[in-house]
Amino acid sequence: MAFLSSRPVLAWRAFAAAWRWSPGSACQVCATWQRDAVCGDCQRRFRHTRSHRCRCCAAPLASLSEVCGRCVLRPPAFDQTLAALDYAYPWDGLITRFKFGGACELAGPLADLMSDALWTAAEQTGFEPPDVLLPVPLSAARQRARGYNQAWELARRVGPALEVPAQARWVERVLDTPHQTGLPRAGRLLNLRGAFAVTAAGRAGLAGRRVAILDDVMTTGATLDALAATVRRAGATAVQSWVLARTVSDDAAP
Predict the structure, then answer these.
(1) CA-based radius of gyration for the chain
(2) Running DSSP on this structure, what letter comes out for residue 211?
(3) Is the full-model pTM beyond 0.85?
(4) Counting beta carbons within 10 angstroms of the beta carbon of residue 158, is it exposed (0 to 12), middle (13 to 18) or buried (19 or more)?
(5) Which residues, 6+ apart, have CB-to-CB distance to 91 below 8 Å?
(6) Which stretch of DSSP H or E encloses residue 239?
(7) Which of 20, 155, 209, 252 could join 166 in a cystine, given CB atoms 3.0 to 4.6 angstroms apart?
(8) Partner residues linked to 132 by β-bridges
(9) What is the DSSP letter of 60?
(10) Distance (Å, rounded) from C-alpha 17 to C-alpha 183?
């Protein structure tokens, strides 16, 4: 693994992130008076995630199969998904605040959790590191309204920690599609048709590259599937999906 040599960098980033919070900060989960955005006790208590997931889409599996039935019947355009957390308490509330509530200060602590989970996956499975990390882009209108792209805020922190360059300008969202919340997978796929495009810089950079695309939450995988298909058409040879949280079911959409 090319990026395993930089694990001390992650430890230093976690230490530095803790000191960005003043002595008067409260844990965002239990309100304990300490320095971290999410205290160590809450991280240990709630960080557990499902040990057996579909290798392709990270959906929870009850059987010992490696791939879920849906991915067998309709393989997505990405090869593998790595999920740091379940989309469940308390992470669902924190991610909602980060994504919709303007709490960009949560990007650092959440990215540290994501980076550490990716380190663990790398050590346990030995997955092939990508050449480049691409955040799922927002439309220009939605990014102006929100003030930032939450996927980029994660990617620009996770990428350096794992020695994978993050590129924010290689793909763009050209259609400002309606929110996906509440739509079934088929509706989401239809909603996303033609939503993404590769920029001129992306066309020059993606050919022959192994790519990871990063998003905050994966529900049905439709967004990541559409973007993965777009970068494959531009010449990417392999595509992974990296997500901060994976929902337990399609009904648990954020």
Answers:
(1) 17
(2) E
(3) no
(4) buried
(5) 46, 85, 244, 245
(6) strand 238-246
(7) 155
(8) 211
(9) B
(10) 37
The helix (run of H) or strand (run of E) holding residue 230 is: helix 222-233
Nearest to 227 by CA among 254, 193, 203, 204: 193
What stretches in the chain show pLDDT beneath 50? 12, 14-23, 252-254
Cα–Cα distance between 99 and 170 in angstroms, integer? 22
In whole angstroms, give the CA distance from residue 244 to residue 214.
Answer: 8
Q: What single-letter amino acid sits at 84?
A: A
CA distance 135 to 153: 9
pLDDT in tens, 134-183: 999 999 888 999 999 999 999 999 999 999 999 999 999 988 665 655 55
**Token output for 88:** 């469940």
At how many degrees (to 10) do helices 107-125 and 7-19 cross? 160
Token match 């010449």: residue? 235
Structure-token pair, residue 151: 């996927």
Query: Residue 10: which H helix or E strand, with range?
Result: helix 7-19
52 contact partners, CB below 8 Å, separation of at least 6: 60, 61, 62, 64
- For residues 17 and 36, give the distance between their C-alpha atoms in angstroms, rounded to a whole number: 8
> Tokens 């929902």 appear where?
247
Give CA–CA dist 252/88, Å, rounded: 9
Buried b (16+ CB within 10 A) or exposed e, 178-192: eebeebebeebbebb
